[in-house]
Amino acid sequence: xxxxxxxxxxxxxxxxxxxxxxxxxxxxxxxxxxxxxxxxxxxxxxxxxxxxxxxxxxxxxxxxxxxxxxxxxxxxxxxxxxxxxxxxxxxxxxxxxxxxxxxxxxxxxxxxxxxxxxxxxxxxxxxxxxxxxxxxxxxxxxxxxxxxxxxxxxxxxxxxxxxxxxxxxxxxxxxxxxxxxxxxxxxxxxxxxxxxxxxxxxxxxxxxxxxxxxxxxxxxxxxxxxxxxxxxxxxxxxxxxxxxxxxxxxxxxxxxxxxxxxxxxxxxxxxxxxxxxxxxxxxxxxxxxxxxxxxxxxxxxxxxxxxxxxxxxxxxxxxxxxxxxxxxxxxxxxxxxxxxxxxxxxxxxxxxxxxxxxxxxxxxxxxxxxxxxxxxxxxxxxxxxxxxxxxxxxxxxxxxxxxxxxxxx
Length: 409
Ligand code: CTP
Known about the structure:
Elements: E1 6-11, H1 17-29, E2 33-38, H2 40-45, H3 48-55, E3 60-61, H4 70-78, E4 82-88, H5 90-98, H6 104-111, E5 115-120, H7 124-128, H8 130-141, E6 145-146, E7 150-153, E8 159-163, H9 167-178, E9 190-196, E10 200-201, E11 207-208, H10 215-226, E12 230-236, E13 247-250, H11 254-264, E14 270-273, E15 280-282, E16 301-303, H12 307-314, E17 320-327, H13 332-342, E18 347-352, E19 364-371, E20 374-382, H14 383-401
Parallel strand pairs: 1-2, 1-4, 2-3, 4-5, 5-6, 9-12, 9-14, 12-13, 14-17, 17-18
Antiparallel strand pairs: 7-8, 10-11, 15-16, 18-19, 19-20
Helix pairs in contact: 1-3, 1-9, 4-6, 5-8, 9-14, 10-14
């Protein structure tokens, strides 16, 4: 890909089609030349003229028999660097999964050999139906990157999942897949990231732990390295492939993690505390394996050192410290605001762990990024995408403090 990337935007006939205009603008703002292809059903929601005006290109619509010079249009589509279909209705999704090519959009999909990103949008029951779920799985097997719908109030008045992902999240995914995110905004910076969940031993074989997978921290480490940073990943009990180019340190317990963070701190420009650090540890760890000799067993616990609080007192000027707040329920947002202040952080990333479709052990996350100057919501998206957005904010803040301003992307 040289110069400005070309993106083909496919619009199908769902109510979310009106959001595709905003998506188109977002893609353009990210530096892409966008061409639009619509199904006939989509043209009943939004006039092709809207997309024609915004994109500056003719919009192709219709079925294969009607469309003039169909082959030429399909070939034009094939020349695009990426094909994004948003919204993707249950019907077109099913056609794509099964290789049907009964209109210009589905024929273009079948003929297209590049990267495809799709953002489904439909009623909750349709989304949850086993047929749709099977089709989504098939689409993924076909290599399509699915930006999953989020939960919210749908056009039919019910609350549930099926609402198209926010245009911002789709733009971020497209950027990520196109690798226009080949940014170098962290070049020359040393970044440390804690990830995973610490395990506090009770005896030689047992421990208290948590369900953190470390996926968010590893995604941050990979993305920070790609953007030019020198990266240390301080990891607790992570079972994930190594991130290329990243220095890894195993710190299975809160104590070990504390030592490693404090050890690296003087040389770090940015610290992301993404790990789920145990708040308590056993006072006495039994030697060997405890037997089952009592009716009741008490394990005496003491608080672990709060790493972020220690960092807050030890940090030097110019260091950028990011905390993570995994809170239960939406009221966690106000607790995150409070933590941002109390722990003297530059940024905190809040996610709601009461939800099973994001966060712990999921490949997806939905977060709110809080800084002393503002708050920004990142809709449900793959953790890799969320990591890129967190780094966008971080790089911007860090550079701004140094008096260097990055263009808004
Ligand atoms: N954290 C830390 N050291 C600990 C515990 C947590 O540095 N011993 C960090 C986490 O990595 C995370 C942030 O603190 O970035 C928030 O974790 P949380 O457990 O929610 O913080 P607490 O201060 O323990 O919050 P609360 O007072 O609500 O329990």
